[in-house]
Automatic annotation (TrEMBL):
Organism: Anopheles dirus
Record GO terms (molecular function): ATP binding; galactokinase activity
Protein name, UniProt field: Galactokinase
GO cellular component terms, A-Z: cytosol
InterPro entries reported for this sequence: GHMP_kinase_C_dom (IPR013750), GHMP_kinase_C_sf (IPR036554), GHMP_kinase_N_dom (IPR006204), GHMP_knse_ATP-bd_CS (IPR006203), Mevalonate/galactokinase (IPR006206), Ribosomal_Su5_D2-typ_SF (IPR020568), Ribsml_uS5_D2-typ_fold_subgr (IPR014721)
Gene3D superfamilies: 1.20.1440.340, 3.30.230.10, 3.30.70.3170
Length: 340
């Protein structure tokens, strides 16, 4: 089988370019081999394949690549993988803006460090609650085992994760494990030299972000007059949490968020962070155009690299569209989509 790849998603931009390549390749391979796989199975296979590059991703990018629907956000849930469409306000316009700071998550340990910190936080909380902690390295599994609400999980983190920074020695003692066990079974290959871990901050971000997702959905479904305004606030809160608790932002991303705040636009980083893009929510075309023009002068106008780039490819409006499909030129431009 020979494959030629082409695309227009900029790499290391937080727009899931690697997931797009993997998902497109898996879909094409399945089609050529007449494999009758539904979208959920294709997404699961794609997520597993991407781990071969060394990043411990959760599968969200691959899921939305297949399960996206036009005009909707998607609530992605797991075990089993499923998606619930959330109709967005008709006047909502999204802007994608590239910070021009590349974020290659496979090249550093930053991304996996956050994954490890979340897993360690879940396991430590599980041990403190006298559960089988080795099997509970995901917050969702821990929450289910405890039967707690998100608010209760947030309170548990505040109560039980007392230290702002846990050392390696702290965790060896609290988990009652050996250095060898800790290194081989609780860390990833590129985090085995890590000496400090911020468990409380990462856990708080995860549970507070989950609460924001719930609030976002409730706002979209209730369709009040200030729906978009409330969604903007949630996006601003999300970015602030990513900046201060998850610590995966970048000065260029923060500059764009600051500009958006001045214009009343709701903006957050998208993707893994440490560079890449922001996604901004605007109330109508006029606001989105004003935001784009302001970014061109106040942000891109001060970056030399932007002067030799096509600005339209760096900063543009967009909207949710359908997920991955096969487009067949030899069959009168027909489109084949995997089953739901």
């Amino acid at each position: 089988m020979m494959i030629m790849l082409s695309g227009n998603i900029p790499p290391a931009s937080g727009l899931s370019s690697s997931s797009a390549i993997v998902s497109a390749t898996v879909l094409g391979t399945a089609y050529l081999h007449n494999a009758t796989l539904n979208k959920q199975t294709l997404a699961t296979i794609s997520a597993e394949c991407e781990k071969f590059i060394g990043t411990q991703g959760g599968g969200m990018d691959q899921a939305i690549a297949y399960l996206a629907q036009e005009g909707c956000a998607q609530l992605i849930e797991w075990n089993p993988l499923r998606a619930t469409p959330i109709q967005l306000p008709a006047n909502a316009v999204f802007v994608i803006a590239n910070s021009l700071s590349e974020a290659n998550k496979a090249a550093t340990s930053d991304f996996n460090q956050r994954v490890v910190e979340c897993r360690l936080a879940s396991r430590l909380l599980a041990k403190q609650m006298r559960l089988n902690w080795r099997d509970l390295n995901r917050f969702a599994d821990l929450q289910k085992a405890l039967g707690y609400s998100l608010e209760q999980m947030e309170a548990l983190v505040h109560t039980n994760l007392a230290l702002n920074v846990y050392t390696r020695t702290d965790l060896l003692k609290l988990l009652e494990v050996t250095e060898e066990d800790f290194s081989e079974n609780l860390l990833t290959p590129n985090t085995r030299n890590s000496q400090t871990f911020k468990l409380k901050q990462r856990a708080l971000h995860v549970f507070q972000e989950a609460l924001r997702v719930q609030q976002y959905i409730e706002t979209a479904k209730s369709t009040p007059d200030d729906c978009i305004s409330r969604m903007k606030t949630l996006m601003k809160q999300s970015h602030e949490s990513l900046r201060t608790l998850y610590e995966c932002s970048h000065e260029n991303l923060d500059r764009m968020v600051h500009i958006s705040d001045q214009l009343g636009v709701g903006t957050r980083l998208t993707g893994a962070g440490w560079g890449g893009c922001v996604v901004a929510l605007c109330d109508g075309e006029d606001e989105s155009k004003r935001f784009v023009e302001t970014l061109k002068t106040e942000f891109y106008g001060n970056i030399p690299k932007a002067q030799t780039s096509d600005i339209a490819s760096l900063c543009f409006t967009t909207s949710p569209q359908r997920g991955a499909e096969i487009y067949m030129l030899e069959k009168e431009k027909s489109i084949w989509s995997p089953s739901a």
